[in-house]
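User: Please predict the structure of the protein below. I'd like the answer in C-alpha cell form so I can feed it into my own downstream comparison script.

Assistant: Understood. Taking the following sequence of 89 residues as input:
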Amino acid sequence: MPHIDIYTTPTCPYCIRAKELLRRKGAIFTEISVDGDPAGRAAMTERAGGASTVPQIFIDGRHIGGCDDLYALDAKGGLDPLLAGGAGS
C-alpha cells in the first residue's frame, strides 16, 4: 500500500467524501487536521503548490489535489493503480 496523506478539517463535507472513497478502496491514510492550525495549513499550502482548501491529498508524495480531483482520478481509472503501488495516470 502506498503512503497517503490527507489534510482535512473536521466538518468539511469534501474531506468526508474523500475519506469515504479511500476507505471504500481499502486504502489506509494519515489524516492531518489543519483546523485551527495556521502553521499546519501553511505547510499544507506550500506542499500543495499554493492550494489552500481542504482536503489536499497526496499519494506516495504525489499531489492528487482535492476531493473532486480524487473522484475524477478514480473515474478515469487512475486511482486503483496508485493505490496498488503503480504509476497511475
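That's the full C-alpha cell string. The two ends are 17 Å apart (CA to CA).
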